[in-house]
């Protein structure tokens, strides 16, 4: 198999990776707080040695998968009327405590359990500014959340939701479609903008993703046709060599 085929296969592998990312974006188009992902590819140059190399053929360019990164652009606000549905306008993340530790999220769909604990859709506790789970009096039913995260019921203030930022968003690691893990120190947002009764929708644009998917399919098919043509060419060349040798 010649190097040109290996180069084509590296591009096919990259297109498969890009397709899986686009598919994940499309499947999470309606996931609250989801941030679309993109892939970053680069050329890996292989230097060829030898005095008989043709001009311009001293390097070979393979496709290298470098990273997957997120688009942190704000998603559309969606009204729900639920007092514990909370959307973040601008920077920051909610903090929730999971079985594996504290995680960050933009998915602000919360609910109150029978014991008064405020949790997300997976039962993870919402944390306050001190990193402690927020609990509401079981007898209170009128819940108000201010823009800076102060929770008030008919019996008074019940705590303040902690909104934090990470030093480098690009180093956040996804756990599922809603949670983000970080090994960096986090910093409290001094003036968060929490909107009660709303959630932040996914920032995936379906038409954009469909267009990307079609482009990826075309590129993959072109590379597959090239590999088939190269295989046929090499087979024909071998057949001719065998005939001459015979």
UniProtKB/TrEMBL annotation:
<feature type="domain" description="Flagellar basal body rod protein N-terminal">
    <location>
        <begin position="6"/>
        <end position="35"/>
    </location>
</feature>
<dbReference type="Pfam" id="PF22692">
    <property type="entry name" value="LlgE_F_G_D1"/>
</dbReference>
<dbReference type="Pfam" id="PF00460">
    <property type="entry name" value="Flg_bb_rod"/>
</dbReference>
<dbReference type="InterPro" id="IPR001444">
    <property type="entry name" value="Flag_bb_rod_N"/>
</dbReference>
<dbReference type="InterPro" id="IPR019776">
    <property type="entry name" value="Flagellar_basal_body_rod_CS"/>
</dbReference>
<dbReference type="InterPro" id="IPR020013">
    <property type="entry name" value="Flagellar_FlgE/F/G"/>
</dbReference>
<dbReference type="GO" id="GO:0030694">
    <property type="term" value="C:bacterial-type flagellum basal body, rod"/>
</dbReference>
<keyword id="KW-0966">Cell projection</keyword>
<keyword id="KW-0975">Bacterial flagellum</keyword>
<comment type="subunit">
    <text>The basal body constitutes a major portion of the flagellar organelle and consists of five rings (E,L,P,S, and M) mounted on a central rod. The rod consists of about 26 subunits of FlgG in the distal portion, and FlgB, FlgC and FlgF are thought to build up the proximal portion of the rod with about 6 subunits each.</text>
</comment>
<dbReference type="InterPro" id="IPR053967">
    <property type="entry name" value="LlgE_F_G-like_D1"/>
</dbReference>
<dbReference type="InterPro" id="IPR037925">
    <property type="entry name" value="FlgE/F/G-like"/>
</dbReference>
<protein>
    <recommendedName>
        <fullName>Flagellar basal-body rod protein FlgF</fullName>
    </recommendedName>
</protein>
<keyword id="KW-0282">Flagellum</keyword>
<comment type="similarity">
    <text>Belongs to the flagella basal body rod proteins family.</text>
</comment>
<dbReference type="GO" id="GO:0071978">
    <property type="term" value="P:bacterial-type flagellum-dependent swarming motility"/>
</dbReference>
<keyword id="KW-0969">Cilium</keyword>
<dbReference type="InterPro" id="IPR010930">
    <property type="entry name" value="Flg_bb/hook_C_dom"/>
</dbReference>
<feature type="domain" description="Flagellar basal-body/hook protein C-terminal">
    <location>
        <begin position="195"/>
        <end position="236"/>
    </location>
</feature>
<feature type="domain" description="Flagellar hook protein FlgE/F/G-like D1">
    <location>
        <begin position="87"/>
        <end position="152"/>
    </location>
</feature>
<dbReference type="InterPro" id="IPR012836">
    <property type="entry name" value="FlgF"/>
</dbReference>
<dbReference type="Pfam" id="PF06429">
    <property type="entry name" value="Flg_bbr_C"/>
</dbReference>
